[in-house]
Design brief:
With 132 residues, this protein is mainly beta. The chain contains 1 helix and 6 strands, in the order ββββββα.
């Protein structure tokens, strides 16, 4: 598994390649080096809808797998192809709305009463060494 941060440059429509196979390609610009790189990703099948909530110029983190395959042409020439298969895409640099809910949702909550008791004990006047 790999991850890449960048800016969405292109989002193509979903293409139905065959009756049982659909893919959607998109390009993310990686500007982390001196020379920005435009990286082509693809999502397949049910992952094509991952891109529905994204727009060009969104800052994203793409999680992907590297795929490779061999192909022999009708003339007998062997070629190799690589594909970056995206399976998750998330916006980054977006602030969450202010609420009592942690950014990761309810599963990110910590309901540990010991931590609450410790933090309340540390705020008593006895522990306060300030002169005012």
């Amino acid at each position: 598994m790999f991850k890449l941060n960048g800016i969405v440059k292109v989002i193509n429509a979903t293409v139905q390649v065959s009756e049982k196979f659909a893919k959607r390609e998109f390009v993310v610009t990686d500007a982390s080096s001196m020379y920005p790189q435009d990286i082509l990703f693809q999502s397949t099948q049910d992952k094509c809808s991952l891109l529905d909530g994204f727009q060009v110029n969104d800052q994203v983190e793409v999680s992907f797998n590297l795929r490779g395959r061999e192909w022999t042409s009708p003339q007998g020439e062997v070629k190799y192809f690589n594909t970056l298969e995206a399976w998750r895409i998330e916006k980054i640099g977006v602030t969450a709305p202010v609420s009592g809910m942690p950014q990761g949702g309810p599963s990110a909550m910590t309901l540990d009463p010991v931590n609450v008791a410790v933090s309340q004990a540390n705020t008593t006047a006895e522990d306060d060494d300030l002169p005012f």
